[in-house]
Amino acid sequence: MTSEYVSGLIPNLVRDENAYPLRNRNNVIQRLSTTERLFIPSTIALWNNLPDEVRESDTMLSFKSRITPVVEKMPPYFEIGHRKLIIVHVRLRYFYSNLNYYLFRVNLTADPSCACGNPCKRAFHFFFECPIYNMCRLEMENTMIIISIPISLILLLNGSNTLTREENSHIFFNVQRFISK
Length: 181
Hints:
The protein is mostly helical and 181 residues long. The chain is 48% helix and 0% strand. The mean pLDDT is 84.
C-alpha cells in the first residue's frame, strides 16, 4: 500500500528468490550491512518479526489495530531536553554517535582512541572513565545522588522502569547537560 518510490526500495520476498518451501518464505529478504539501523533495513527487520496474521491484514485500519499492541510506546522522558541534545543522546543509546570508536567502526576515522590516550573512545569511557571530563562527571554524579539505584551506562542512556517519570527525567536532563558541557 506504499508509494512506488518507497516500495521500489524494498527487496523481494524469500519465496520469490527461492524455490524451496522455507518457513520464512513470507519474509522480506534482509541483506546484512553496516547500515542495519537505518530506516529501510530496520523496518524490514520489524516487518519480518510480525506474525503472519498481522502482515496479511486486508486494510490499513485492520493492520494498525493489530499492530498497536505490538508496538512499544516510547517513554515520555526520551523527549526531555533540547532537540540537538536529544539527538546526541539517542545516537549514544544506539551506539551510533560521533565518538571515535563508533566512527572507526564505519570507517569514518582511522583511529578509535580517545584524546586522553585510552585506545577506545566509546560511550562507557566517555561517561565513566575519561579524565578529560572529570569535572563534568563529578557535577553530574553530585546531582544524581537522589537516584536510588546505582548509576550505569544503561541507566544513563535508557532510564529505568523502576524509577518514576520525574527521576528518569532528572537523569536525562543531567546526562544532556553533561553532553553539552
